[in-house]
Design a protein that fits this description.
Layout lengths: L2 H9 L3 H22 L3 H18 L9 H20 L24 H9 L3 H12 L4 H8 L3 H29 L2
Helix pairs in contact: 1-2, 2-3, 2-4, 3-4, 6-8, 7-8
Pfam family, one: Sigma70_r4_2
Family: Belongs to the sigma-70 factor family. ECF subfamily.
Keywords: Sigma factor, Transcription, Transcription regulation
Amino acid sequence: MSLNQLIENCKINDTKAQGELYKLFSSKLFSVCLKYSKNYAEAEDNLQDAFLTIFNKIGQYKNKGSFEGWLKRITINTVLQRYRTEKVFDIINENSIEDVVLEIDEDEISIDYLLQIIQELPDRYRMVFNLYVLDGYSHKEIADMLNINVGTSKSNLARARQTLKQTIESYKTAKSTQSL
């Protein structure tokens, strides 16, 4: 069955087609959920919520643009909706923002460790960091998505980078001390 036919069958609530669509895209969308969630269990919950939203809104997909991109946007928005209602974002004075450069040596830091420390960031930092750094959204887009101001987005990104930088430096120090 073609993807277009699968989509059309999902639009008429064909549960078999929905199962196929889930199998086809769940691993990719789970990785999106994992980036924005605190842990694995929360990512699983977010994936389920995202698919419920996808199946409810699939009738709105008009076969224009990438279907996978549409799924990813729905997934990100579903996850972010949870944090919007929890009011995890602080209003920050833009004048207090100091840009932090975060350099990661891939030979010293594994991707798994990096994902782990990103997941450990406070919600507001993790959301902005992932949206800006990993998914390429602008501060204006992030501000609109999270219902915050641009300055708060910039500040949360700077603080996320600062926190990650400190964590990575501590990790490197501990690693070099162990090898002595």
